[in-house]
Specification:
The structure holds 2 protein chains of 2 kinds. By secondary structure, chain A is mostly beta strands. In chain A, strand 7 and strand 8 form a beta hairpin. Chain A is globular. By secondary structure, chain B is an all-beta fold. In chain B, a hairpin with a 3-residue loop joins strand 4 and strand 5. The chains are: A mainly beta, B mainly beta. At the A-B interface, strand 4, strand 5, strand 9 and strand 10 of A face strand 5, strand 9 and strand 10 of B.
């Protein structure tokens, strides 16, 4: 079965700094999702990537999909306290199989 | 549009009891998926329903069951609760049952504590 490994597991950055979170799949990626979760709450959809080389941005968050490396990266520019939370990647390796999620990256942004 | 709603938000039960959780999807969405989230195992897929039919099932014991109604609302039931069932149970809805094509939108979750 597909497994997703996220790195780092946790991250503490100073406000204003840039950061990158990686998500690596054990199998071919056909759809890759990024979600953000505040502790103990539901997941907020950030972005979905479907094609190799695809890159999407929303406000200060950019996600890329490298199909050859079976990897996706999430980059935050000029981090703010509102970016703090747990970032989860989810993926499927075929059309109708359920999403599998990584264990998450806990991001803290300090002033 | 209203988002995915889950009730109740918090629940405390004792071992051996059973529990029913409810999920109302986004209007127009016909697929509902359920996930269990724990600190140790992370987010794990329970089952998915589309048009009242179970399409996929995760690797959970038979104590975990679910159903979907004609209005797409879904319920999940856990019988004979165990301490290890304490978790955040998340429901997600999408237009169809193809995760590759349709984004899943999550509800706020139900926090279940088993004593």
């Amino acid at each position: 079965s597909q497994e997703l490994e996220q790195s780092p597991q946790s991250l503490i950055v100073q406000e204003g700094k840039n950061l990158t979170i990686n998500c690596t799949s054990s199998k071919t990626l056909y759809g890759l999702y990024w979600y953000k979760q505040k502790y103990g709450e539901g997941l907020i959809f950030l972005m979905m990537l479907q094609k190799g080389g695809e890159e999407k941005s929303h406000e200060k968050i950019t996600a890329k999909l490298d199909e050859k490396k079976q990897q996706s990266s999430l980059h935050i520019t000029a981090s703010q306290p509102s970016h703090a939370g747990i970032y989860l990647c989810g993926a499927t390796n075929s059309g109708n199989t359920p999403l599998v999620f990584g264990k998450g990256t806990r991001l803290s942004v300090i002033a | 549009k209203a988002g995915v709603t889950q009730t109740p938000r918090y629940l405390i039960k004792t071992r051996g009891q059973q529990v029913t959780l409810s999920c109302s999807p986004i209007s127009g969405h016909r697929s509902v998926s359920w996930y269990q989230q724990t600190p140790g195992q992370g987010l794990q897929f329970l089952f998915e329903y589309f048009s009242e039919t179970q399409r996929n099932k995760g690797n959970f014991p038979g104590r975990f069951s679910g159903r979907q109604f004609s209005n797409s609302r879904s319920e999940m039931n856990v019988s004979t609760l165990e301490l290890g069932d304490s978790a955040l149970y998340l429901c997600a809805s999408s237009l169809t049952f193809s995760p590759r094509a349709d984004t899943q939108y999550f509800g706020p979750g139900t926090r279940l504590t088993v004593l």
